[in-house]
Amino acid sequence: MAKKAKKQSGGTPATVALTEAGVPFTVHAYEHDPSHPSYGEEAAEAMGVSPERVFKTLVADVDGALVVAVVPVAGSLDLKALATAVGGKRAVMADPAAAERTTGYVRGGISPLGQRKKLRTVLDSSAAGHATICVSAGRRGLEVELSPADLGRLTEAVSAAVGRM
Question: Does an H or E element contain 98, and which?
């Protein structure tokens, strides 16, 4: 992995949070194609990384509270498992406008790091099987690669099997 990035004025809230925490990470930039049907799959293809190592950040509403789920782009989110992981009864995908307003990021660029309002986070347990994973760095066309342990620690994430392959 590359050296820690220095805090730059052009950084996103996610990269600034990583830099301030002293966590090693690598930034991967690629040209975002607005016509691509999947942000996550586009990222995996553009970076030449297995889709099992690229994780998407999804915002769900669990019993009236917004919760972040970080799952592999190769699969989907199991809403029932997410609700169970946070002690809830029912989960539905959050309204996109509410997700954007609460996190401070746009859809397709929501990062689990550096959110405007820190949300409860669940990291799919499959992440632990990789030395590093990639998540959004806070905008479309920008990913950050880091260890799943560092991501879990910084987001205070619960680890649970919430992704379906």
Answer: helix 96-103
Neighbours of 156 (CB within 10 A): 9
Distance CA 76, CA 85 (A): 16
Taking the C-alpha atoms of residue 161 and residue 147, their distance in angstroms, rounded to an integer, is 18
Q: Map tokens 């586009």 to a residue.
A: 42
Kindly give, in sequence order, each residue whose CB lies less than 8 Å from that of residue 147, ignoring residues fewer than 6 positions away. 24, 131, 132, 133
| Element holding 154 (H helix, E strand) | helix 148-155
DSSP state of 102: H
β-strand pairing of 158-160 with 120-124: parallel
Q: Which 3 state secondary structure label does DSSP give 11? A: coil
pLDDT higher than 60, residue 92? yes
pTM attached to this predicted model: 0.90
Longest dimension (CA), the chain: 42
pLDDT over 70 at 5, yes or no: no
Name the band, by pLDDT with cuts 50, 70 and 90, for residue 32. Answer: confident
